[in-house]
Structure formats: structure tokens, C-alpha cells
Amino acid sequence: MLFFMQILEKLDNNDVIIMEGLAKIIIPNPERYKRPDGVIEPAWFPVFYNPLMKLNRDLTVLIVKEFYKRGFFIEALGGTGVRGIRLAVEAGLEGIINDVDPLAHRYIRRNIRLNKLEDKVYPYMHEANSLLNNFTFTGIVVDYLDLDPYGSPIPYIDSAVKPLGRKSLLGVTATDTGPLTCSHPGKMLRRYGVRCVDTDFSKELGLRVLIYNLVFRAAGQDVALKPIMSYSYKYYYRVFFSSDRKASSAYKLLDECRGYIWYCRDNYDRKIVREPVFLESKCKHQHVIGPLWICKLGDKDVMDKMTRTTDPLYSEALSFTRKLIEEIDINNPYFRYDKLFGYHRKNMPPISVFIEKLRELGYKASRTHFDPRGIKTDASLIEVHRIISSWPS
Question: Which of 55, 89, 171, 277 fits a disulfide with 146 by CB distance 3.0 to 4.6 angstroms?
């Protein structure tokens, strides 16, 4: 496997040194934490390190480098410290890597020494909310703050926005995709205040619910969080926000981007609406889902600038970013191609053929990173149904 090709050295205490990006990182030897089927299980590591999060960390470095040549960061939930180490080595930032776990703190200190960053990166061992609340009073401007928790970021967001400067970046990961995609409706209601229903665009629904909740909580502290890049990948969501510490900006953002999705389970029709009202329709099973984020899921200009780098170190991240750019201007929730053709009992042409047909008719259309069976388009679902119904069998 590619992951094991990254091992540089095995240490006497059953740790190994790997290379990620330009950073050397000491982690527990992954060979010791295999499941019976031979797959490495990062959750079993005594200190968490997940190689599948490399794309997440690559994108963090890319987006921070786009905004800052130097600056100060806080990684509130550090684990081995790999993200903070990379921010220092590759983006030139100084900062704090924190973890409440004493064993994680030990790995963080060792990794700082290994990369000769003692004068740039400082290890802390605090409960994350305590650190962030107290840091508010230091007077130090935080340019980038990262939240990468196990599960939901909701327990941390109120504290996270406090130390942000007037114009800062915030990166947030959520791994509780079950509740957010409505596999666990009770948890969705408790954590995010949304009574959800099963939809064919569940992955996008979860991201929009997550973004709105983070924006709403920050607005309560007069901080406007605007998503500049967001996505779903494997088992997690990731959102990068730009911040503006101004009450008027927070109000305007909520006023424009708080809304609902009207959804018909009979024929998969959906519409973004500003208020939770049922529409005049022949649909027998209408649902109004929200509140959630109804504006765009990112900033195309920022992502375009990110892709200008030619550094092969970030080739996977650049390829992924270009996929996001293709769909960013289409704000309608994606639809499941297979479900609509199944509804009409028609054989599906290749998805690329159907997308090209939509474009020929003057509509925007693209595949979506959310689902390989998904299509994003600015055509109404009524129009999509009409096109499919007239498609040759």
C-alpha cells in the first residue's frame, strides 16, 4: 500500500517516522493496529493519526498559503500534531498545537523537535474550549484556527470564534455524517435543530445543515463566517470559512443565506425556499427541511487561485479542487441520476451523455463530488423529468 511506502524509519519504541508533505512525523507503528481483515484501523492507535485525512491537510495548507505568507495558527485538537507541523513547514506560519491527552502532547513535542520548529510552534495540553476561551484575552491575533474533532464540531464552535481576528480563517471538520445525512434523525434534531427526512441528496443536505449551524452560532457573537470552500469526502465534511468580526456582516449573511429546502418524495422534486412553507403542488408527500444554508458552498475566486500552484506535492488536492470548481456555480441540490431514470422506468444512457444534453438545451450541468450517481444542474426537476420522459427507451 502507498501509505507504507511513506515510512522512513522504524524507531526502537515501536513508533515509526513517516513523511507527509514536507514534514516528518512520528506516529505509532500502524502494523500493530490491524483489524482481523488486515486493514489498518486508526481509531485503535494510542494517538490518532489517519492517513486518509492527508487530502484534508493538503487542502488546509493550500488555502492558508493563499491567504497568508506568515501568520499565527491554533490547532485545537492536535493528535500527533501533523497538521500544525505542516502549516509551519510548508506555509511558514507560527502557532500552537494543542491536545488534552498527555500521550498526544508527548508526540506533538517530539514532532516539533524532529522538524526543528521549537522557535515557531508551541505544544499545549489543555481542554480545547478552555484553551480557546482563555486565548481570547492574550491580544494575539489568530490568523488560522483549526477544529478537527472526533464527531461533531458543535461543542467547540462557540469557543473557536472568540480568538479569531477581524479577518481570519477557520477550518472545521465534522465526522458525524450519520446524523447529518439523516441516518440518525434523532441526533440530527438534537445536535443541529433540523427535523430531517431521507432524500436523494443527503450528502449535500448534511453539508448545508452543518454550515448553517456554524454560521448561526458564530453570528451570536457578532462574527460572520462565510464558507470559501466546503466538501464531503468519504466519512467526513470539511468547511473553510473566512471570518469578519462585525455584527452587520453577521446579520446580512444570515438574512441572505438562511433558508429551507422544499422536497417532494413522490417525484424527487426540490426547491430552495426562504421560508418554511408548503408549495402549491400535486405532491402528496411534501417536506420542508431546515433551517439550513441556501447560498453557494464556496468562493470560486479563492479556489481558482488555489489551483494556480504547480507544486506536484499537492496534485491530489489540486485535482479535487478543480472538481469542486466545476459545480460551485450550480446552487441547486444535486439529483440522483439513477433514481430519476428508475422513476420513469427507462434505461440510463451514460451520465456524460445526459449532462451534455442538458448543456445543449442551455442549462448548466456537471457531475458532483457528493455522489458518483449525482448531477448538478440549474434546470428545474420538472424540466429534467420532461427530458427523461422523452428519452428513447
Answer: 171
